[in-house]
Amino acid sequence: MIIRPIAPKDLDALFRIAEESGPGFTSLMPDRDALARKIDHSVDSFQRTLSAPGDEYYLFVLEDTATGAVMGTTGIQASVGRIHPLYHFRHSTLVQHSRNLGLHRQIDTLTRCQHYTGCTEICSLYLRPEYRRPLAGKLLSRVRFLFMAMHPERFSDTVIAEMRGVSDEGGQSPFWNCLKTHFADLEFASVTSLVGAGHTEFIEDLIPDHPIYTSMLSAEARGVVGKVHEQTRPALAMLEAEGFRFRGLVDVFDGGPTVECPLASIRSVRTSRGLRTVAIGQPEAAGTPTLVANTGLADFRATVTSDATTAGKTVLMSPTLSRQLGLDNGAPVRALAMGNTRPATHPEHIAMTPEKHYAH
């Protein structure tokens, strides 16, 4: 398995992923022209020389080195909300008090906001069902943190992940089904398609910016605020092990939580190490599975391997591995032992869409 930047040749595979992933995976809609533009945007982003984040979108694919098949995708949006506003509800408590009557009451509210404008977002993670194998899901998730650790000038100091909220087998969101009766008579599939295509103006037109009392919502809607889809729980556990935390911001459509972490505090950023491949040969014995990445941009490559051993600031790897990663003797790499941040369950064995992002 090799992680590399997406290329125009991957359009057919990306279209199949968009079809497979279904309506909950709004960052990749099954529209060939739109997907081709995303690929072009990603290719351009990897080629830019930067000192600060802008509208860059970095999309990676996981390739089966034996067959060349695309196994999955993973992505990073460098700075969200710059072109299309990124809306959330802030879930908070309003305190009302009448001193004269001696009455005191706390009321939960949802208030529309754009709190995360300018933050970096991890998104577009999808592992195709037939390729769910040990370490594949972890590789797709953590490789983004190594890439950001090596190129911090390209990203914000705060990283977020929007987690998929609760929906039923038919793709219906109890949260949105309640909101639409009050504010926007649109089906859930319609609003996610609109925002996935970059049409966000209706949110400001139809969703009020004043606090919404959650007591006015149905019990079903209140019960899913800040909750994730069952299939997303392992992915959330992985991010929580990395240091991500929920700070009360939820999605305006399905009520799912957004989690955040300072870039420098992400565990894989802190515990990964910069090394040099000063020796290429055959390691004496297989070691702990390690995520190893070169330090390139357009030529970025990464994999998980037991075919490398480290000592101090050096790493010994096989000739085959060095060729796959495009490395010569003395070339710099970054490495992360995959035994770190292990959650209780394995996301590579669950279904599909741990993270979402509506528009780039």
UniProtKB/TrEMBL annotation:
Q: Which Enzyme Commission numbers does its entry carry?
A: 2.3.1.109
**Keywords in UniProt for this one?**
Acyltransferase, Arginine metabolism, Transferase
Single GO molecular function: arginine N-succinyltransferase activity
Q: Domain of life here?
A: Bacteria
Alphabetical list of InterPro entries matching this protein: Acyl_CoA_acyltransferase, Arg_succinylTrfase_AstA/AruG, Arginine_N-succinylTrfase
Q: One Pfam match, by short name?
A: AstA
Biological-process GO terms, alphabetical: L-arginine catabolic process
Q: What is this protein called?
A: Arginine N-succinyltransferase
